[in-house]
Amino acid sequence: MCEVLSEYRSFVNYLEQLKGLPEEFWLQPIKEEKWSTGEIIAHIKAWDIFVWDERFAYFVGRSNLPPKKVDVEEINRNAANEARSGISKNQLINEVIECRLVLSKKLEELPNEIWEEKIQMENSTITLCEYIKGMVEHDHHHKIQIDKFLISKGFELNGQIV
Known about the structure:
Elements: H1 4-18, H2 23-26, H3 37-61, H4 72-83, H5 89-108, H6 112-116, E1 118-121, E2 124-127, H7 128-152, E3 156-157, E4 160-161
Antiparallel strand pairs: 1-2, 3-4
């Protein structure tokens, strides 16, 4: 099995830490013209759901992805709107955690050969392992953004400056 699965699942630990984030920072943009921490977390949930709904079956079925245009902006806009919809910080974080754990469990149950089988995606081929590695990198990118924001506010997660 691909070793990135544990990294993918471990993002849950970071999400748990974010439950300690003061409410005043949750919907505050991390920089001018950027999303807030809440919007970023909703964005991560939206892409986990997208992977489950729109990508997972192709890897499991070992079939090429049909040429279908993904409306990235719409997915991101809907995620940002969810974060600002009045949903509580902990409810949203819990939903993202649940989504990540369910998807991780499904991925863990897959036979090893599915992790390394290449499927056609647009103009290139990709394995499930490579795809999940890209999601881990995506998580890491957003974690760095949030951490820099928190450092700028002098905020510490679990008694440590992030």
